[in-house]
Amino acid sequence: MRGEHNSTSYDSAVSILFSLVVMLYVIWVQAVADMESYRNMKMKDCLDFTPSVLYGWSFFLAPAGIFFSLLAGLLFLVVGWHIQIHH
């Protein structure tokens, strides 16, 4: 059993994560589309309407969080691979 791994568990985990990423992207695109339709609807009533969207610190720190999440995932895979080979 050394050197072998259960590829179906890895495949299912990857497919679940990919599906989650796709769903989050669709939700984000839908939110942006709703904001645009909201602005257009309000522009009919008031020509001087400008939406104000405030972003919090979490929005600005998200790119760093993505980087560290990927780094943690790669570290997890390397440690798992190392344990699997040597034990």
From TrEMBL:
User: How is this protein named in the record?
Assistant: Transmembrane protein 182
Starting at the broadest rank, the lineage of the source organism is:
Eukaryota, Metazoa, Chordata, Craniata, Vertebrata
Membrane topology category: Multi-pass membrane protein
Database matches in Pfam families = Claudin_2
Q: Which InterPro entries match?
A: PMP22/EMP/MP20/Claudin, TMEM182
Q: Which Gene3D superfamilies match?
A: 1.20.140.150
Q: Which GO terms describe its cellular component?
A: plasma membrane
In Gene Ontology terms, what is a biological process of this protein? muscle organ development
The membrane-spanning stretches of this chain are 12-33, 54-83
Q: Which organism is it from?
A: Homo sapiens (Human)
The UniProt entry's sequence similarity note says: Belongs to the TMEM182 family.
Q: What is its main location?
A: membrane
Primary gene name: TMEM182
Localization, UniProt:
Cell membrane
Q: Which UniProt keywords apply?
A: Cell membrane, Glycoprotein, Membrane, Myogenesis, Signal, Transmembrane, Transmembrane helix
